[in-house]
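Researcher: Re-running this chain for the archive, since the previous output was lost when a drive failed. Same request as before.
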Amino acid sequence: MTQKIKLNPNICYMIGAHSCRECSDNSSIEMSSKEESFLESFIKIAIGLGVEPSKLLVSKSQRPTLYTVKFYNSRMRKFFDTSFRRLEHIFKHANIYTASYLAGMFDACGGVDERGIYLYGPGSRNILLMEKLGFHTSLTTKVRIRNAESFITFIREHSLRMRSIVHLPGNERDLC
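Model: Regenerated structure tokens:
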């Protein structure tokens, strides 16, 4: 008998990271990054959720260097899709689940440049969710977060990328 998937901060992180991806495959879950350390966290979370290490497909593409971790799990993908359809209900409060979701989204498709914090391609539902939570955005070629300090404070304990940018101690996600 398989164990039922329940929401926890690590699942919410993976849902957030996956929400920025457009996968053509109906059962794959994947994350791409220019830095291997972000994918290591994704791999540890996936293994912690019962994905066999042999089922994880890791690839590296050149020009630009991009690392990708992908696995197939139709049950988990269905759970992710259901959670994403209920996005406004699940992540309506500013709590640890929502912080983990936004951190996963930032790690997968966000960054910092000379103009501030941005997300690239988060989708209109994610933008609306951020606005409802009080993180105001402006849309250019990237979605800019106007109140960056509030956003950083909210996700920094859950985001690997934010920890490396802000230089906080402990760049490992707590998987316990």
